[in-house]
Design a protein that fits this description.
Helices cover 15% and strands 42% of the residues. It has 155 residues and is an alpha+beta fold. It has one domain: Sandwich (Immunoglobulin-like). The strands form two sheets. The chain has a four-stranded antiparallel beta sheet, with no helix packed on it. The chain has a four-stranded mixed beta sheet with strand order 2-8-7-4, with no helix packed on it. The chain starts with a helix and ends in a 12-residue tail after the last strand. The C terminus is likely disordered.
Length: 155
């Protein structure tokens, strides 16, 4: 009797194993962003001053073309460039099994101590969030340049 009641509750609320399987299959059919080495890059300790860069390499591991509509850094100290292996930044789809690159630059002279910056990728990827944004991250520690020779003392 309990099984019948649970089954009726599941049907009444729209929850069923068949529906879940169908949703999972639909999600598996779409494009999927998969980053080589993960979606976070740790620069470690960097000297303040120069702009540092990292290239995130990704593959569309899904079954449909991946369309990247926009890429937005979290602040003005971060820059981004997107390169589809064949098309450059013309927002052409990244086909299943193909790679793309997102180059992220950070102005280290604007950082103080530990930093964590986000870049949001707006796309049709099925593994993006509900707002269709997939975040990638850069982090590290900005340190003062200690290689400068000390000025001689005046006597």
């Amino acid at each position: 009797m309990k099984k019948v009641i649970v089954l009726l509750l599941c049907i009444a609320t729209g929850f069923s194993p068949a529906l879940l399987a169908q949703q999972k299959a639909a999600k598996a059919k779409g494009p999927v962003l998969t980053f080589k080495g993960g979606d976070t890059h740790d620069f470690g300790s960097v000297k303040k001053g120069p702009i540092v860069h990292y290239i995130f390499e990704f593959t569309n591991t899904g079954k449909e073309p991946l369309v990247i509509r926009d890429i937005n850094p979290s602040c003005g100290c971060t820059s981004v460039e997107f390169e589809n292996a064949k098309s450059g930044w013309d927002k052409m789809p990244v086909m299943p099994g193909k790679k793309g690159h997102i180059k992220v630059g950070l102005k280290t002279d604007e950082q103080h101590g530990n930093f964590l910056k986000d870049v949001s990728i707006l796309s049709n990827a099925t593994n993006a969030g509900p707002d269709q944004r997939y975040p990638i991250h850069i982090k590290g520690l900005a340190i003062e340049n200690t290689d400068k020779a000390a000025a001689p003392a005046k006597h």
